[in-house]
Amino acid sequence: MKELWKRKDLLGLQELSSEEIQLILDTADSFKEISLRAIKKVPALRGKTIVNLFLEPSTRTRTSFELAAKRLSADTVNISASASSFTKGETLKDTARNLQALKIDILIMRHSAAGSARFLADILDASVINAGDGAHEHPTQALLDLFTLKQKKGKIKNLNVTIIGDILHSRVARSNIWGLTKLGANVTVAGPATLMPVGIERLGVTVCTDVNKAIKQADAINILRIQMERQKTNLFPSIREYRDLYGIDLEKLKNASKDILVMHPGPINRDVEISSEVADSSYSVILDQVTNGLAVRMAVLYLVAGSAAVLEVN
Amino acid sequence: MTKRQEKIIRIMEPDQLRRVIMRISHEILEKTENHEDLAIVGIVTRGAHLARRVVDNIKEIEGINPPFGILDITLHRDDLDISGTREMHKTEINFDLNEKNIVLVDDVLFSGRTVRAALDEITDYGRPKKIQLAVLIDRGHRELPIRADCVGKNIPTSFDEKVRVHLKEEDGEDVVLLVKQED
Question: What is the ipTM of this complex?
Answer without folding.
Answer: 0.74
